[in-house]
Design goal:
By secondary structure, the protein is mainly beta. The chain has one domain. It has one helix and 19 strands. Strands 4, 5, 6, 8, 12, 13, 16 and 19 form an eight-stranded antiparallel beta sheet that branches. A seven-stranded antiparallel beta sheet has the order 7-3-9-10-11-15-14. Strands 1-2-18-17 form a four-stranded antiparallel beta sheet, with no helix packed on it. A hairpin with a 5-residue loop joins strand 9 and strand 10. The longest helix has 6 residues. The two termini are about 35 Å apart.
Amino acid sequence: MKKWQKFAGGALAFALLAGVTGQASAGPVVNTWNYEINNGFSSFEPVPGVVGLDPNATLGTPTRLEWPLSGSDRSSLLVDSTQSGFDLVTNGANVAGATLTHNNLPIATRFSNEFLRSGRLSVQIDLASADPNVSESITLDTFFDFAFLETENQGPCGFGSASTCDDIFVLTGNGDLSQDFTYDGQTYTLVFGSEQLSTLDPAACQQLGLGASCVGFLTPENASTDFQTFVRIIGPSTVPVPEPGVLALIGTGLVILGAMRRRRPI
């Protein structure tokens, strides 16, 4: 898992610095991008206790997880299947990526062997220049691994909780969230970000057998909670070098983690 650092105000960030080389004959800088983002849960446990539904047409992976299999009332975790647009501006504002929604219903503990425990959210983004119009396209991907605890619906919770008791999501691993890529001879950095991840109370981390300073979020019982992500493109980064026909390209990436919003009660 990449190293997470906490900023003032509770936000989290990390930076990935990379140097790559490209061709000297670079095309024009892309001002605006067309994009399509596909999302799906490429793995989850336990099986068959957790049911995967509504597969993403491109990835073939489910976009909805429900549990427990044997229960009539099921909690669920959903992710937007696809987002697309033409308003991703180089060095501009963040563009909304996938929204995860946890529908947190009270579940009888007799089904605990069928509760969601972990999973991987896979993300693929296809990019092409909208301004100027360039036919070339490029595909990038990343992933987020998470652990999850479906808590008992009775106190004491054993950790700070807004309800009795909040469920716990913890980020346990991820792919590259800041990726350099070369497009039409120019190098850019694609940033995958997320709103409101925070360092959890050590007591909450311990509920999943993890050490202090685990990163994640809590979701109240009997409510739907949204978790928003974003993408951004920065660059290009080009620095000429003495050798003819070669550029030294330096890419920097920054992920800023902001605010999670709670939806209506179920």
